[in-house]
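Quick one - inputs below.
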Amino acid sequence: MLEAQISKTFESYEAAAYEPDETDRRIIQATQGGLPLDARPYHAVAEALNLDVEDVMARLKAMAEAGALRRIAALPNHYALGYGANAMTVWDIHDHMSDELGRRVAALDFVSHCYLRPRHPPQWPYNLFAMVHGREESEVREKMAEIADLLHSHLRSYDILLSTGILKKTGMRFT
Amino acid sequence: MTALTQDTVALDAVDRLLVNDLQEGIPVCERPFAQAASRAGIDEKEVVTRIERLLEGGVLTRFGPLYNAERLGGALTLAALSAREEDFETIAETVNGFTEVAHNYRRDHDLNMWFVLAVETPERIAEVLNEIETATGCKVLDFPKIDEYYIGLKFHA
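Output:
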């Protein structure tokens, strides 16, 4: 199953990146905006690119195995699903605890992504970023308080940045 | 800019099941919708028709392969800038005009524009950030990922 292969975390990829050849690049370019809406979508891709469907599927599987393809899936619009409050919560936590705390924050069911990123002091003292989603702002703020509880003794300061507009959401575009 | 006060689109039980199911992903095989169809009690053609409708209705923003630029030899970063209110729309247009900008969000902070770059070669990150600084006249802060703890699939329809 493809899903099983794709569920690996990035840390498990010690190997070099996948090197797409010309044919891989054509497949990426043809599908990065979306898969053809067809009951047999890989056949539709193969036909459009004048490739063999077995070749298209083998290349997609190889890219998935190498982590170059996370998954082939639906991306929902949070807002349309009723998640009206989407916040980037940012935390200044002690560096020696960042790995353990990052994992614990990521495990919370209302956190979709969690990253460690560089600080830019004095303007930006925060190093842990956790995306939190809820139906309304009060819910997101309650969840932020839960994270603050979890981080308590290792936490110096934090902030919340609510998203107030989607300006662009196209995803990666290879040219 | 996409309004955030969008009305929630009416979804029936089958739509909800599909949105939840298809977020997890479909396999690479002859008939990748067969499993989702049988779980939803509809045929594959109807799965595709419903995906089409969910895309048109804005419930889904995309359906297809989610490539990882880093594992294709490219790179990603998160960057932010502080745009003056009166210039915000113009600066957003300028930033969005770069094909390397994959996502861009407005946020309620002094750093009010946050965008993700996805580039084909790591050197392009610094180049594009410089180009954005030149084009907007705004200082851009770079927040490259040091570590990533989880990518979740947690939106229940």
